[in-house]
Amino acid sequence: MTPAPRAGFVAxxxxxxxxxxTLLNRLVGVKLAIVSPRPQTTRTRITGIKNLTGAQVxxxxxxxxxxxxxxxxELMAKTVARALDDVDLVCVVDDASDGRPPDPTILARLxxxxxxxxxCLNKIDLVRPKxxxxxxxxxxxxxxxxxxxxxxxxxxxxxxxxxxxxVVAALPEHPPLFPATSTTDQPETFFVAEVVREKLFVxxxxxxxxxxxxxxxxxxxxxxxPCLVIRATIYVEQESQKAIVIGLGGRxxxxxxxxxxxxxxxxxxxxxxxxxxxxxxxAWRKNARTLRELGFLQxx
Length: 300
Ligand code: GDP
Ligand code: MG
Known about the structure:
This protein has helices spanning 20-28, 73-86, 104-110, 133-142, 160-170, 187-203, 207-210, 239-246, 251-268, 288-293; strands at residues 6-13, 45-52, 55-61, 89-95, 117-122, 148-151, 213-222, 227-236, 271-280. It has 300 residues and is α/β, with parallel strands linked by helices. The strands form two sheets. The protein has a six-stranded mixed β-sheet, with helices on both faces. The protein has a three-stranded mixed β-sheet with strand order 7-8-9. α6 (187-203) packs across α9. The longest helix has 18 residues, at 251-268. The model is unreliable at 31-44 and 295-300 (pLDDT under 50). The structure holds guanosine-5'-diphosphate (GDP) and magnesium ion. Magnesium ion (MG) binds at residues 20-21.
């Protein structure tokens, strides 16, 4: 019997320079078009999706875990805890070559987190002699906070397959959260398309959402002023559906756009400009090329 599929969100957290990006690229296997860090209001941001047979691992960033002190301390701690509770697994990454025990700030942050937490002690290729690793593992074990403590080398790949196995085993049984297309280089686009589709479903009547698809044409980050500029096309099959989606004087499309934009702003934690257009493409559901273009053909 094939086991039930697993899928979930995994947060990679840790101090700067410990190798989080290197590990992400190693685990996901493709270089990601990483959008620059969002302001602190961000709860989670998808940074990569790994599709495996029977499992999908969605990696997210939850910034702020290392911010210290100040009047906002308590609020920050709560925000981080909430963000970390939104995920299914937290992986704390640290630099094993420092030989340092877990950062007390991080341990304090993790106190409120109810999800499983792994420790990835990275850069073991720099640990010499190897016997230095054992006392380090012991100090991390002593905190009793980590479900797994894995010595790894993200740049060489040591133990990274085992880490991925442990991650998958810790995820809930769940069908894939995103389409498993061959191009996961900009997973944000899947999310945007899903949000727009959801609003279509909410605001229009039955016929339309099933006969529709959303393609994100542009997702660009502007620095001055900070915002995301998103252009997306809604594909429908008939002129009559196009008229429904646009609505009288464009009212329906504005409603869909406003609701989608609000969700996207909450998710990305940044102002969003969302431009939607509606296009008729007959029988797109039966056309393999169109399906592939729209990212619907599953490749793994
Ligand atoms: P981040 O700030 O946590 O995202 O860290 P990066 O992934 O940008 O890595 C910081 C530095 O550590 C880079 O120069 C990496 O090449 C290096 N690095 C990452 N992983 C390893 C590792 O396993 N071994 C060694 N020797 N260097 C690593
Ligand atoms: Mg990084």
